[in-house]
Design a protein that fits this description.
About 70% of the residues lie in helices and about 0% in strands. With about 260 residues, it is mainly alpha-helical. Among the domains are: about 10-90, Tetratricopeptide repeat domain (Serine Threonine Protein Phosphatase 5, Tetratricopeptide repeat, Alpha Horseshoe); about 95-165, Serine Threonine Protein Phosphatase 5, Tetratricopeptide repeat (Alpha Horseshoe), CATH 1.25.40.10. Helix 7 (about 115-130) runs antiparallel to helix 8 (about 130-145) and helix 12 runs antiparallel to helix 13. It starts with a helix and ends in an 11-residue tail after the last helix.
Amino acid sequence: MPPDDAEAVGRLRQVRQAARQGDAEAQNALGAAYAEGRGVRQNLREAVRWYRMAAAGGSGLAEYNLGLLVAGKFSGVLDEPDAMRWLRKAAEDGSTEAQFDLGCRHILGIGVPENAPAGEQWLAAAAEAGFPDAAHALSKLYETGAEGVEENEGKAVEYLRQAAEGGVVEAQGELGAAYEAGRGVEEDDAEAAKWYRMAADQGHNPSQVALGVMCLFGRGVEEDREEGLRLMRAAAEGGGADAQRTLKEIEEQVAGWDPEPWEG
């Protein structure tokens, strides 16, 4: 047996022993192992059994995992009627993942009746606890509005910034676009370029395109045609049809330009 496998088996043995002794954290970990087939043969019913023990022992994470499992996250759906009950319990016990999940479900009407105000409340609870994906979802909700939730550009930008500062790549790109267009904030090309750069450096295709154009024409940054083309090509090579079209248009339209053609 390879050393890594032997270590994994040893760790699982320790987890199992602790779980049998009533350790809720270990019970949750063992449930996850059975749910994912990690170190053991996948067995969803065994996963449910250990998750239930951990949840009964006060593990909010186990409550959330149990809710996801019985709601059908894994193949071999266990269509148990208490899926939402476990998710709600986890959310009420402070699990930000569960609050985010439950918020999205209420807004989209997945597993529960569509109820945007309830979704707003759950997402706000998770966002206030520092869960950036919830802040991003709230930003989207306030941007478009929904039945029972009015559009609110100020809140949309506020939560978008929270998500961007929390590391949500899509939010960083969207905040850059907000600054470029002056949507909800004062128009500021330099600030737009800053947020585009954060997202572009992580491979966010729309941000690579936007920052590439800014570099090419010196908007918000010093003109740098080489960097602009590099970003456009990176976006195009990443499968961005818009980037491919934009790159070709730029190569054709900018007078006196003779860059190497992109070959996709």
